[in-house]
Amino acid sequence: MKKFIKNVFIIIFLLLIYILFSAQSYTFAISSDLSNAVFRLHVLANSDSKEDQDLKLKVRDNLLKYMNSICSNCKTKAEAMKIANENKEVFQEIAENTVKENGYDYSVKININNFYFPTKTYGDISLPAGYYDALRVEIGEAKGQNWWCVMFPSLCFIDVSSGVVDQSGKENLKNNVEEESYKIISQSENIPSVKFKFKILEFFAQTGLFTAKN
Questions:
Q1: Which of 18, 45, 59, 77 is least buried, going by the fewest C-beta atoms within 10 A?
Q2: Per-residue pLDDT averaged across 72-85, rounded?
Q3: Partners of 209 in beta bridges
Q4: Are strands 130-139 and 108-117 parallel, antiparallel or unpaired?
Q5: How large is the average pLDDT for residues 180-187?
Q6: Is 126 helix (H, G, I), strand (E, B) or coil?
């Protein structure tokens, strides 16, 4: 009897190891796929005052307008990031000029790097928490609320009030990720098993386990 119980525990232990290994492999594969497909934008306002928050949105709009103009023909994140890095000084200038034109003397810090992002929804696309390459903009003391967005493919709201995003951006994203990844992040795939997989990704990302870092 003792031997039987011991064998049962061994089987359960091995099963748990297998499940953990499978979850690790799956989470890393999906997070790597998504991280390699999108280039994001993160704008931090000087403070939470209405004026500083309004300024943050104006900086965002001008940066996105310029990004869309220089990356209109980009098909991959690698292309978009290459162009963004080549135009980093222009992004800096646009942000600084926007701040000055609105009557402020805040400093502006631009940085392109790999950053942690929380789970964020853009229309019917939800990107799980994890590490993504992004252009980060810090205005002044950068102590205000953030704006999270996707510069490539363009998944920022066309109309924030309606939550509508650019359809071509979604198609571009779909073409740059594996079918499994797109099913997980698309809310149109309203299937319990897909939702469960998304929750797994969220859990491991939030605990800092198994997610890809560049």
A1: 18
A2: 90
A3: none
A4: antiparallel
A5: 80
A6: strand
Count of positions (residues) in the chain? 214
Phi-psi region of 145 (alpha: psi -120 to 50; beta: other; left: phi over 0): beta
Structural domain boundaries in the chain:
32-206
| Closest to 152 in 3D by CA, of 128, 168, 129, 139 | 168
Distances (CA, A) of 211 to 45, 112, 137, 203: 28, 20, 24, 10
pLDDT digits (tens, 9 = 90+) for 100-155: 999 999 999 999 999 988 888 877 788 888 889 999 999 999 999 888 888 888 77
Q: How far apart are CA 130 and CA 100, in angstroms?
A: 34
Q: What does the alpha-carbon distance between residue 127 and residue 38 come to, in Å, rounded to a whole number?
A: 10
CB 212 within 8 A of CB 150: no
Of the candidates 164, 126, 167, which has an alpha carbon nearest to the alpha carbon of residue 30?
126
